[in-house]
User: Which sequence fits this backbone?
């Protein structure tokens, strides 16, 4: 087996594993959401099937798969069936571009009777130089899935839901994109891995030639860009059509919005897509503002020395170090996913004009102000 | 056939076929969805050329924002009359034939003009600056050498936006009486 084909296989397997990870996390999130909402509303939630109701997920999957196949009479076949399939694509492509753990630097090792050279294994689907632009680009395509579903269903509720969803998505995309501009100015790069690397160690920055260091705070983006973090996270809620911005589904007004005609597994695909957007938003939150996969105050290289002290030098220590940072990333991400759930069961829904006002008249000007302020501050700090 | 060549032909064919779909399909919704496909195809071709930033911006601006608006507007219209007007009748037929003729002439002209340009080796005035960080180079060029064009385009877009609002208001906007 040649080196190139080996690398292609490794990367292919890695992408499939990360994709499956994203998809497999969804049932657990559904369980967490149902139990969590029950906890918040003083109910029990699903607790009958299996320990803690955990096997409810399996029962749900069987239910989804065995439901009757249904096609609405006035629907358009191609669009109707294409929409749920393409619902998964934007979130998956975006998630694959996010660094999920510290790169594992392997020394030479023996395998299949050959010596394999030093190799850096990234816990990331693919590394792209213009990471942020790529993620914004692919997630902006999510609007088409919703529009295709709305139009293909041949149902007025579905169409109205789709129009609401897509207008909301493009309105908040502007605020989201502008809030990220401050982050890009701060780190001076589009590359997500470089961003994470520049957040390592304790808080320290250069101000007019003096280095200011605060040893007890990690060097996270949230301390430089608090407003951007707030706007980004709020816009992410709107982008993934979650409460308090779930006007697209508004049960009381639109029955269920764009997926009213979908049942069984086709509905489930939309569901996975929605949770995928939540996961991507949480992962981006961690990457931009909370140090990515890094353990607070310790750089991955210092951690590697600690791990090597315990396990001895070698590839095993490097792998353990990489996985450790991966777990740290997942824990940080889980916090933000939980906030998604908590907010959904705490806040009521906006009215539609309030939603548009918030997007265009509040978040957009503040994001713009944040961009200008950041640019000015960076100019002052570097003179 | 190397992978690069295969990729180029695949993307080029997809893009051209999607572009053809824009003008062939009678239903405006399919036209716009084909246009989206064309934009995505063009972005993918940008990626194969190494212009990642341009590809991303192409997707964000055209596929992500502009065309979503097109689709939304089309979905809100009652299109039966338009579909009928644009698919039947001798005048429409004549326009179609004329459009095909123009397109054919353009293709022939483009091939005739660019037939020898690939063989030329000397640099004919076009700078090749994309080395290393192409995004930074693009930004520098845009805000130094091509600043006037860039700003003029911005003003043009503003004029278009104001004009569109003025036209829509003159006809009564969404509450027009027929």
Assistant:
């Amino acid at each position: 087996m040649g080196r190139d084909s080996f690398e292609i296989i490794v990367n292919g397997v890695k992408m499939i594993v990360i994709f499956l990870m994203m998809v497999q996390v969804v049932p657990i999130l559904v369980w967490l959401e149902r139990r969590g909402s029950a906890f918040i509303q003083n109910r029990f939630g699903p607790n009958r099937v299996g320990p803690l109701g955990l096997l409810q997920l399996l029962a749900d999957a069987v239910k989804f798969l065995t439901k009757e196949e249904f096609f609405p009479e006035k629907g358009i076949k191609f669009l109707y069936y294409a929409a749920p399939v393409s619902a998964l694509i934007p979130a998956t492509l975006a998630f694959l571009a996010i660094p999920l753990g510290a790169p594992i630097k392997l020394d030479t090792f023996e395998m299949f009777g050959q010596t394999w050279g030093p190799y850096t294994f990234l816990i990331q689907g693919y590394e792209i130089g213009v990471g942020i632009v790529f993620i914004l680009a692919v997630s902006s395509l999510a609007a088409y899935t919703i529009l295709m579903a709305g139009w293909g269903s041949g149902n007025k509720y579905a169409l109205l839901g789709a129009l609401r969803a897509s207008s909301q998505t493009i309105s908040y995309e502007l605020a989201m994109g502008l809030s990220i501009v401050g982050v890009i100015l701060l780190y001076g790069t589009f590359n997500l891995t470089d961003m994470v690397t520049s957040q390592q160690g304790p808080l320290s920055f250069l101000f007019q030639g003096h280095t200011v260091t605060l040893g007890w705070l990690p060097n996270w983006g949230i301390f430089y860009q608090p407003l951007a973090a707030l706007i980004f996270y709020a816009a992410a809620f709107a982008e993934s059509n979650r409460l308090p911005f779930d006007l697209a589904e508004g049960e009381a007004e639109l029955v269920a919005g764009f997926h009213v005609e979908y049942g069984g597994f086709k509905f489930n695909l939309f569901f996975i897509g929605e949770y995928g957007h939540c996961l991507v938003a949480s992962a981006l939150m961690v990457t931009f503002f909370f140090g990515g996969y890094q353990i607070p105050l310790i750089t991955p290289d210092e951690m590697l020395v600690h791990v090597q002290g315990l396990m001895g030098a070698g590839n095993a220590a490097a792998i353990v170090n990489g996985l450790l940072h991966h777990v740290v990333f997942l824990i940080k991400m889980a916090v933000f996913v939980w906030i998604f759930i908590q907010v959904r069961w705490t806040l009521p829904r906006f009215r539609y004009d309030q939603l548009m006002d918030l997007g265009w008249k509040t978040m957009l000007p503040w994001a713009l102000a944040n961009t200008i302020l950041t640019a000015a501050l960076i100019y002052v700090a570097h003179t | 056939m190397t992978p690069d060549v295969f990729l180029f032909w695949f993307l080029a064919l997809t893009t051209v076929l999607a572009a053809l779909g824009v003008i062939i399909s009678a239903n405006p919704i399919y036209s716009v969805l084909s246009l989206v496909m064309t934009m995505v195809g063009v972005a993918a071709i940008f990626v194969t050329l190494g212009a990642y930033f341009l590809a991303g911006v192409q997707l964000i601006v055209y596929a992500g924002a502009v065309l979503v608006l097109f689709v939304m507007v089309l979905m809100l219209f009652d299109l039966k009359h338009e579909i009928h007007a644009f698919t039947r009748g001798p005048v429409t037929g004549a326009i179609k034939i004329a459009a095909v003729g123009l397109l054919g002439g353009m293709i022939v002209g483009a091939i005739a003009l660019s037939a020898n340009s690939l063989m030329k080796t000397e640099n004919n005035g076009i700078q090749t600056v994309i080395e290393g960080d192409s995004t930074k180079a693009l930004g520098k060029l845009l805000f130094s050498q091509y600043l006037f064009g860039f700003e003029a385009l911005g003003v043009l877009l503003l004029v278009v936006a104001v004009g569109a609002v003025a036209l829509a208001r003159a006809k009564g906007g969404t509450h027009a009486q027929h």
The first strand of chain A starts at residue 101 and ends at 106.
